[in-house]
Amino acid sequence: MAYTTIDDPSAYFHIQLYTGTGSSQSITNDANAGDFKPDWIWAKNRSDDAGHIAFDSSRGVNKNLTVNSTDAEATVTTQVTAFNTDGFTMGSNNGANGSSDSLVAWQWKANGGTTSTNTAGTNIDTTVQANTTAGFSIMTYTGTGTDNDSIGHGLGAVPHWIIVKNRDESNGWQIYHHKNTSAPETDYLNLNSTNATQDDSDRWSDQAPSSTVITLGGNDGVSKSSVKYVCYAFTEIQGYSKFGGYTGNGNADGAFIYLGFKPAWLLVKQTDGADNWQLVDNKRDPINLVDAFLMPDTSSAENTHDNNIQVDFLSNGFKCRNTNSVFNGSGNSYIYMAFAEHPFVSSKGVPTTAR
Q1: E strands, 85-135, where?
Q2: Is the bond leading into 191 cis (omega within 30 degrees of zero)?
Q3: Low-confidence ranges of the chain (pLDDT < 50)
Q4: Do 217 and 123 contact (CB within 8 A), yes or no?
Q5: Coil, helix or strand for 203?
Q6: Which of 49, 154, 207, 325 is deepest in the core (most CB within 10 A)?
């Protein structure tokens, strides 16, 4: 088997740091692979207490969802106003472009905003744009409120990480992760909450996703009758993305997690305790130790140099470097979502270097 099918992850995932101006500005992505037009933008003001904002090219510009909130979709004309060939345009909103503030935008490519109708689901058709090379799809659909209905995702492979948000009503961000528990289809997490894993059949109808569909329960968070939803689904791509789990050891010589690549972006959640989600990346923290963290379940500004929350990014994975329960509590269970800076070994057999 080839080491990877993606030698340059920046062709499909990119992190852009920028400084706010307080007025509309076009942000040019500096992706190594060249022009990068995003389909999903998740942005955060690092300097201020401001919400994590999410836009995608399926729902269109001006349609904001706030990751750390249960709020319904809002029309906001001062945040993302354009998806550009080489980046995006931000309006004057403080959370998106505050004057002199430091900001970050995490971005993924799907299908350039070109969608199609997917009829693979039961009783629910989806509007999908899928990138099967990068293992990412965006779906929009209208719920039925009927348990065991399903939606087609277009990935052609089983999704390992699924995010669903009710667009019309106040409701949490519903998370499926294939390593959440030994029976992940029975459980869920909320991206906007510190809550530990909860067991309830009304999210995924106790049915694991397949290579064609995601089965939904009747909960308002995933499928209420006549309510609109958005779903982001990911499947692992060797050398580019990994969605796994690990057990902490409560030691400064912490758990090592093999990814098969040098990570660029890492999101971690303790599943058996009420701790914050933790998000770190290689642009905000270009050298080890990695300790500049943001928390998707809060609007808090970036916190740096916290001796309790530290990891190392390595050429083939990451290693916990502290005893804090958010990353490495003794005996605690964790899930992670990671995207690559570079595969550990390229398709030509060339290994990457450590930091």
Answers
A1: 87-90, 102-108, 116-118, 126-131
A2: no
A3: 1
A4: no
A5: helix
A6: 154
